[in-house]
Specification:
Blueprint: H1 2-11, E1 16-20, H2 24-35, E2 40-44, E3 48-56, E4 61-69, H3 73-82, E5 89-94, H4 103-117, E6 123-129, E7 142-146, H5 152-165, H6 173-182, H7 188-198, H8 209-224, E8 227-230, H9 243-257, H10 259-265, E9 272-277, H11 283-294, E10 298-301, H12 303-306, H13 313-328, E11 331-335, H14 338-341, H15 350-368, E12 373-379, E13 397-401, H16 406-420, H17 430-435, H18 442-458, H19 466-474, H20 479-483, H21 485-496, E14 500-501
Parallel strand pairs: 1-6, 1-7, 2-5, 5-6, 9-12, 9-13, 10-11, 11-12, 13-14
Antiparallel strand pairs: 2-3, 3-4, 8-10
Helix pairs in contact: 1-2, 3-4, 5-6, 5-7, 7-8, 9-11, 13-15, 16-18, 18-19
The chain binds adenosine-5'-triphosphate.
Length: 503
């Protein structure tokens, strides 16, 4: 797709094509295919000015001739434009992003664009950069092309080609389909590398194939820098209580794990869930456990990372984040502290307007989403959330978590003591601890368990007793005491809005 778009814009002779991508290999491949046998010069920071001479399309490699070793970008541009050396050429500018802060470079490029517009210079510039910076002066001359991911069909074709070319023995159809899903979001080169590592001669896959894929995906996500891939540790059994929410998620996981059959049956793909509630009561834990239960990667969307300082940069980052999540899907996309992410919506001024646009983008995507990206959004203070977000059709359900009730506290104590001191669990009077922890959050209880165990160790004991935990309880201030009336207010609000109780 990128190749076709590049070809189209090269033919349309737009002054600047800005390829915004972090996948250098894929971009290089596309540029090579799109420019074909045109005259192409390149500038990059390492070598300066290059003539991309001999293009071997099939091998995806270029033979370079250095025109001016280490030539600074400014000189390259000035000479090229003034002396019309750029005429009838495509000029690739790599590593360009940081130079777009430089007013001299921007001014030269602007002059070049004016000349192109007037028909006095026949040149197309291709910018290649992993971040998007569009200086206001160049905005109207720039066409932005962003990363596009391979479709399932393209991935399948690539796998079949690989199998044929490498004479891998007969491969089970189910294995191929599993690989197609696993490879979503990866580039051709990455897929080829994994395939050559993962396939044995007899057509079976090595045991570490899923780990190779996961590791590659983690790198793809890390390179993009807009989403974070969270390692999966906690599962549903690590959550005490919240049974309604857990049952609901288990049901949705059943659909996501059997997508094909569910679709044939007429079931729609779940969109996601909003979990609101007081801090430290298991909201994040549920996001993590959902991904583990579904057996898919957990991607965290941090709005702070999306915000850029250039025109359109934040929106472009949001588009990229969504495209990446869709490419990696099936996955869980976790939007933490939703109320902070979209704070300032509807306000005046640059930042507020950008946030409003980002919010609009997110809403439209949620509304129209047809991919297997299951969104888990968590929020502490729903009063700060825009009401549009809570309308039906965005999330499948909205749950609220409260401070854990008696039987939930019992479970949370059992989980946390069981994790750290399973040998002492039986002798501990958990009922007593439960009585003394009304108003404690799950995180408070975890804190009490940690402190009790630590104290027993410091005092040289062989085992932890109920007494150690009681001492820890006496020395902590529960969340209810710290948050005071605001907890009651929040809970009243949830009930009035008819959110479902997670417990
Ligand atoms: P915040 O809004 O502050 O992010 P949160 O509701 O997302 O809070 P979590 O991060 O899920 O809270 O919980 C913090 C820690 O407290 C967890 O890592 C876990 O150890 C413990 N915890 C909270 N609730 C529970 C629970 N229901 N069962 C077991 N552990 C819990």
């Amino acid at each position: 797709m990128l190749t076709e778009n590049l070809k189209r814009y090269l033919e349309a002779a737009v002054p600047i094509i800005y390829v915004n991508s972090y996948d250098d290999n894929a971009v290089e491949e596309s540029i090579l295919k799109a420019t074909g046998y045109r005259k192409v010069w390149e500038w990059n920071r390492l070598y300066g000015a290059l003539n991309r001479k001999d293009v071997h399309k099939t091998n995806v490699q270029v033979v370079y001739e250095i025109i001016s070793d280490g030539c600074p970008l400014e000189n390259f541009l000035i000479n090229g434009v003034k002396d019309r050396e750029f005429d009838r050429k495509v000029i690739i500018l790599k590593d360009i992003a940081s130079y777009l802060d430089n007013p001299d470079i921007v001014a030269i490029l602007k002059t070049a664009c004016l000349l192109i517009e007037q028909g006095e210079l026949d040149t197309v510039f291709i910018f290649v950069a992993s971040s998007l910076k569009v200086p206001g002066e160049l905005e109207k001359y720039i066409t932005i092309l962003e990363d596009e991911y391979l479709t399932e069909n393209e991935i399948r074709e690539e796998i079949m080609d690989f199998i044929k070319e490498n004479s891998v023995g007969s491969v089970y159809g189910g294995t191929i389909e599993k690989l197609v899903t696993a490879f979503k979001g990866l580039s051709l080169l990455e897929i080829e590398t994994i395939l050559s590592l993962a396939f044995r001669d007899d057509g079976t896959l090595s045991e570490d194939a899923p780990d190779l894929v996961l590791e590659q995906k983690r790198q793809v996500i890390e390179k993009a820098g807009i989403l974070e891939m969270i390692p999966l540790k906690e599962g549903m059994d690590d959550i005490g209580g919240l049974n309604n929410l857990k049952t609901w998620i288990r049901n949705k996981a059943r659909i996501l794990n059997n997508m094909k059959r569910a679709a044939e049956f007429g079931v729609e793909l779940p969109k996601g869930v909003l979990i609101a509630g007081v801090p430290g009561c298991g909201k994040s834990l549920n996001a993590k456990a959902s991904a583990k239960l579904m057996g898919v990667p957990l991607l965290k969307l941090d709005m702070g990372r999306l915000m850029g300082k250039y025109v359109g940069e934040s929106e472009s980052n949001m588009r990229k984040a969504i495209a990446l999540a869709e490419a990696i899907s099936p996955c869980v996309l976790w939007v933490d502290e939703l109320e902070k992410a979209f704070a300032g919506i509807g306000g005046n001024g640059g930042a507020a307007e950008v946030t409003t646009r980002l919010f609009g983008q997110f809403l439209t995507w949620m509304q129209e989403k047809e991919s297997a990206v299951f969104v888990v959004a968590t929020a502490n203070d729903i009063m700060k959330l825009p009401p549009e977000l809570m309308r039906k059709g965005r999330f499948d359900e909205i749950f609220y978590v409260q401070l854990p009730r008696k039987e939930e506290r019992q479970k949370i104590f059992e989980i946390h003591i069981g994790k750290r001191r399973p040998q002492d669990l039986e002798k501990i009077d958990i009922g007593k601890l439960v009585e003394k922890t009304d108003g404690y959050s799950g995180a408070d209880i975890e804190g009490v368990v940690k402190e009790g165990i630590e104290n027993a160790f410091i005092n040289g004991k062989n085992a932890v007793t109920t007494w150690d935990f009681i001492k820890a309880i006496d020395s902590t201030h529960p969340l209810k005491e710290i948050m005071g009336e605001s907890i009651d207010k929040l809970e009243k609000e949830y009930k009035e809005r008819k959110f479902k109780s997670a417990s």
